[in-house]
UniProtKB/TrEMBL annotation:
Designated name of the protein: DUF1465 family protein
Top-level taxon in the UniProt lineage: Bacteria
InterPro entries: AraC-like_sf, DUF1465
Source organism phylogeny: Bacteria, Pseudomonadati, Pseudomonadota, Alphaproteobacteria, Sphingomonadales
Biased amino acid composition, Basic and acidic residues: 92-103
Pfam family for this entry, one: DUF1465
Region Disordered: start-end pairs: 87-110
Length: 164
């Protein structure tokens, strides 16, 4: 009978430089979309909303921005660990963990224009994915594979060459 892999190893997310870069790119694109929408295109839509919904629109725009900034800060911390600027053990400190972001009220979000709803939902989804990585990254690690360690070092050197 073949030995089954430890369930923990299957669920544990592998935080690699490539994953960090991919999430960072996604967060920055989302940040740019949110800024453009809430500062420009959303102003016109906001003006057509009822006063109560307008307040919800403003609150949700702040929540979107807060989520994205927490995500970017966390990803930059992960990048600093990968480049050796921060000791890996120090990422357990509370200030290096993903910051708390308030949940959106589905009832409020449902009253927003479709573009605002998309941004709220995209930021919520990205925050949830990064939160899982943050939480899983501090669980008891599985026995490291020498092959994975070598692949991680090669990937780090390709993405972040020394001297850049």
């Amino acid at each position: 009978m073949q030995e089954q892999p430890d369930d923990h190893r299957l669920t544990q997310a592998r935080i690699t430089p490539r994953l960090i870069e991919s999430l960072y790119t996604e967060a920055m694109v989302l940040a740019d979309e949110a800024r453009t929408y809430f500062d420009e295109a959303g102003r016109e839509e906001r003006g057509t909303l009822d006063p109560f919904v307008r307040v919800g629109f403003a609150c949700e725009s702040l929540k979107v921005t807060t989520r994205i900034m927490h995500i970017v800060a966390w990803l930059l911390t992960q990048r600093a660990v990968e480049t050796g600027e921060i000791q890996p053990g120090s990422i357990r400190r509370p200030e290096r963990r993903l910051g708390h972001a308030a949940d959106s009220d589905p009832e409020v979000v449902s009253q927003l224009p479709p573009s605002a709803q998309r941004l709220v939902n995209a930021s919520t989804d990205l925050y949830a994915r990064v939160k899982r990585l943050d939480e899983d990254g501090f669980e008891e690690a599985a026995v490291p594979s020498p092959a994975r360690a070598l692949m991680g070092r090669l990937e780090r050197d390709l993405l972040w060459p020394k001297g850049e």
